[in-house]
Write a structure and sequence with these properties.
- It is built from 26 helices and eleven strands.
- By secondary structure, it is α/β, with parallel strands linked by helices.
- It has four domains: 30 residues, no CATH class; 446 residues, Amino acid/polyamine transporter I, CATH 1.20.1740.10; 134 residues, Rossmann fold (3-Layer(aba) Sandwich), CATH 3.40.50; 88 residues, Nucleic acid-binding proteins (OB fold (Dihydrolipoamide Acetyltransferase, E2P), Beta Barrel), CATH 2.40.50.
- The strands form two sheets. Strands 3-2-1-4-5 form a five-stranded parallel β-sheet, sandwiched between helices. Strands 6-7-8-10-9 form a five-stranded mixed β-barrel.
- Helix 4 packs parallel to helix 11, helix 8 crosses helix 13 and helix 17 packs across helix 18.
- The two termini are 40 Å apart.
Length: 810
């Protein structure tokens, strides 16, 4: 007989849900918290892992400048590109120098957001948070679109399908990151060095061929599909020309994106973290500057003109012209395109690491929803990864995966973060006035001011091309995050006890009333009645709100025949407003200040999809209203209907098989077969309730030994398995902390700590203690002392304890 599917790996008997089973098959087995470790990066590895986003932007920065210049000034664009490239290199130098100070002061992750929060406060820092969130989303779209353009430059046949390819790559990245894809591996460093090496080789070969007089420019007359060459007769000081130059500079600013990535991961470096991060940042700046300058110069020499379709790219045209059409030249051309594709896709993937961590920081400050703090199946921030995927795919579809259409959304967020980081560090130095602070202040303030100028330029010259969308997002999201924080703070003030104040004494009610709201007489109602009796109230009343008199009469007959020992009250509800009738009943009862009312609501739990379609979840609505009434509380007692339906169906199948004589092996029901004629029968109800009380046996391995949880270790040498402690004696046990409780005992308190190993559980009682440093849920501890037995479980009073480190466990 095949084994039951969907059982927990740790040996429990409860079946897993369909969604969990699907996640396990798609993403792999879940990771446990002990596997959440940090890998330290060496400088060469860090340069390769953390700089793809920054270095890869050189692949399209020069092209974006030409797209702005060529239609306006024609061939003069290939002359103007040189001074514009110099200006961009100057801005890049200031930004790199500014972030050199950031990585020396703030070694924790967070980069610009942490700088802004620490120096301007959490509310102003939300401007930086929104800028970085937008930047991460647009980075995915731009990098993937540019990478696909590199593929189409080598293989033009795939060009018409660039949108489909981009969406497919983003979805593939989402899947990989949901599985726990790590960027600290050496494989992520390969594209960086491959791209930098191949492009520098192209630049060197191009300079040599230029010096030898062998590098000739393209003839615009023979190129079809490029941007139309404009006229260069316009005066250089005309308003149109100035606007064009500013627009070209704004486009070229895309070359500086990603520089802040090193500052977001300073904590991942080997010690000394700040110094190593500074060196890697400078190396990234030198490589990026070299690539931008070299690609710009080759564009000046070759007259590589951007195509309206986005491919072949300017970089691909330069590689084709420099390497030539021979076999070796074509091989190097394809190498450049492959390297460009890899680094751009890798740069896009960096957002899948940075975006979730940024959202977790902001959510930790209570400016984003708390569900963004939750780690998922593979210890990654799954919700943030899915959110990034949805927004970036939508952006690619809206902008048709065109880099030029996406750039207007790009640099505002990037340079806003640069601005906040520069001004934040300037304030830091001005406040602390450490040695050499004036020089550092000048660098950071200049970088912040220049970045602010770039933001203003971009907002003006790119306003109609899509920058207005980013400005609107800032205007909406920043107040929204602050409003969300206000709501969280208001909730915290209500729920938290003010430090230094004694909590109010627990109320003493002279009368406790329990209402059990009854809709029908079934197993769910009986489970609610049994729970109501366990509360030992002053009085228990079953209540049915009468909407249908015939149904109420049938319920009265069933209730009378069953004789449950609780009177059933019928309350007329002519307007069919059940929620109002319930609240009126409770309000009348609590008019006496000495009365507390508890409402018990049986809720029949169905499958999530059908349950929403077939049932209106009245119990939840009543509970929400009753819980707001003073001196009252609502408790929902769930009853799992699908599992009972499955039991009934298995019994019916067994009866049919037995009658037909076709079953070689009888179907095993959870209980010995009993005749269940109807839910109305008292005998059937009693049998079903007794079945609910059965103890579920532990799922075991073929050798009879219990399964061990994933990530769980057995007892160390010299310790006694907890399961073998069945009589009072002195023992040494070891296990993982499962539950921690602080229990009041007269005028003192006792810290109850439950630990477990694969063989069983043990409770340690520390009298007079309310906290033990390091003793938290999930930690491992070794206890030594006398163990007694209480309620069949081993108990130790004030044992000697020792926290067990991960190294010692190995």
């Amino acid at each position: 007989m095949p084994k039951s599917t969907g059982l927990l790996e740790r040996g429990g008997s409860q079946p897993e849900g369909l969604w969990y089973t699907a996640k396990t098959r798609l993403l792999g087995p879940p990771l446990v918290n002990e596997q959440l470790s940090e890998q330290r990066l060496s400088k060469p590895l860090a340069l390769g892992v953390l700089s793809p986003d920054g270095i890869s932007s050189s692949a399209y920065g020069t092209e974006e400048i030409l797209i702005a210049l060529v239609p306006m000034v024609g061939l003069a664009a290939f002359t103007l590109i040189l001074p514009l490239t110099l200006v961009i290199l100057f801005v890049m130098t200031l930004v790199v120098l500014s972030y050199r100070e950031v990585v020396m002061v703030y070694i924790r992750p967070g980069g610009s957001y942490v700088v802004a929060r620490e120096n301007f406060g959490p509310r102003i820092a939300q401007v930086c948070a929104v800028a970085l969130l937008i930047d991460y989303v647009v980075t995915v779209a731009v990098q993937i679109a540019a990478g696909t353009a590199a593929v189409a430059s080598a293989f033009p046949a795939v060009g018409p399908y660039k949108l489909e390819i981009c969406v497919g790559v983003v979805l593939l990245m989402c899947y990989g990151n949901l599985r726990g894809l790590k960027e600290a591996g050496r494989s992520f460093a390969i594209p960086t060095y491959l791209f930098a090496g191949s492009v520098i080789l192209m630049i060197v070969v191009g300079l040599i061929r230029e010096a030898l007089g062998q590098l000739h420019p393209y003839d615009p007359a023979t190129m079809h599909g490029t941007y139309m060459l404009g006229s260069s007769t316009s005066g250089i000081i005309s308003v149109v020309m100035i606007f064009t130059l500013l627009r070209a500079f704004a486009n070229g600013g895309a070359s500086l994106t990603g520089i802040e990535a090193v500052s977001d991961a300073v904590g991942a470096f080997r010690p000394p973290e700040g110094i190593n991060a500074r060196r890697v940042l400078v190396a990234e700046g030198i490589i990026l500057g070299t690539l931008v300058a070299g690609i710009g110069w080759l564009a000046h020499i070759t007259h590589a003109t951007p195509y309206t379709a986005g491919y072949p790219t300017v970089l691909a045209q330069e590689a084709q012209k420099v390497f030539g059409s021979a076999f070796i030249g074509q091989s190097l051309f394809y190498l450049v395109q492959v390297a460009t594709m890899l680094i751009l896709y890798t740069g896009g993937n960096t957002s899948f690491n940075g975006f979730p961590f940024l959202t977790s920081y902001v959510a930790g400050d209570s400016f984003l929803p708390r569900w963004l703090l939750k780690r998922g199946h593979r210890l990654v921030f799954s919700n943030a990864i899915i959110l990034l995927t949805i927004t970036s795919v939508a952006l690619l579809i809206i902008k048709d995966a065109d880099v030029n259409n996406l750039v207007p959304l790009y640099a505002i967020g990037v340079f806003t973060a640069f601005t906040m980081a520069g001004f934040g560090m300037a304030k830091y130095h001005h406040t602390r006035r450490e040695q050499g602070w004036r020089y550092k202040f000048a660098i950071n303030f200049s970088a912040g001011a220049l970045s602010l100028v770039v933001v203003l330029i971009f907002a003006v010259v790119k306003f109609t091309e899509g920058a207005w969308v980013v400005l609107v997002l800032f205007a909406i999201l920043v107040p929204a995050l602050i409003r969300l924080n206000t709501e969280y703070r208001a909730e915290a003030e209500v729920l938290e006890t003010v430090t230094g104040e004694q909590p109010p004494p627990p109320p003493h009610y002279s009368r406790r009333v329990v209402f059990v709201f009854v809709d029908s007489f079934d197993l769910a109602t009986l489970a609610a009645l049994r729970y109501a009796r366990s509360l030992r109230p002053t009085s228990t009343r079953a209540v049915h709100f009468v909407i249908d008199s015939l149904r109420a009469e049938r319920l009265r007959e069933k209730w009378t025949r069953a004789d449950r020992g609780v009177a059933l009250d019928f309350i007329d509800c002519p307007d069919r407003r059940l929620i109002k009738a319930a609240s009126d009943l409770v309000e009348r009862e609590v008019q006496d200040p000495g009365t507390h009312v508890t409402v018990i609501l049986p809720r029949r739990s169905y499958s999530p999809l059908l349950g929403r379609l077939l049932h209106d979840r009245t119990a939840d609505k009543i509970a929400a209203v009753v819980s707001r009434i003073p001196r009252s509380a609502a408790t929902i007692v769930p009853y799992d209907v699908p599992s009972r339906v499955a039991v009934l169906q298995s019994r019916q199948a067994a009866v049919k098989a037995a009658k037909a004589g076709k079953a070689a092996t009888p179907v095993k029901a959870p209980r010995p077969a009993e005749s269940v004629k109807s839910l109305d029968g008292q005998a059937a109800i009693a049998a079903e309730l007794s079945r609910q009380a059965d103890v579920v046996s532990q799922h075991a391995l073929p050798d009879g030994k219990p399964r061990r949880q994933q990530g769980q270790r057995g007892p160390s040498k010299g310790t006694t398995p907890i399961g073998s402690v069945t009589t009072p004696r002195k023992v040494t046990v070891e296990g993982k902390v499962r539950v921690i409780e602080i229990r009041p005992v007269e005028h003192n308190s006792v810290l109850a700590v439950e630990i477990h190993d694969p063989t069983g559980n043990l409770t340690a009682m520390f009298y007079g203690r309310s906290n033990i440093p390091g003793l938290i849920c999930g930690s491992r501890v070794r206890l030594q002392g006398s163990a007694g037995i209480r309620d069949g479980q081993p108990v130790m009073i004030n044992p000697a304890y020792e926290l067990v480190s991960a190294v010692e466990e190995e």
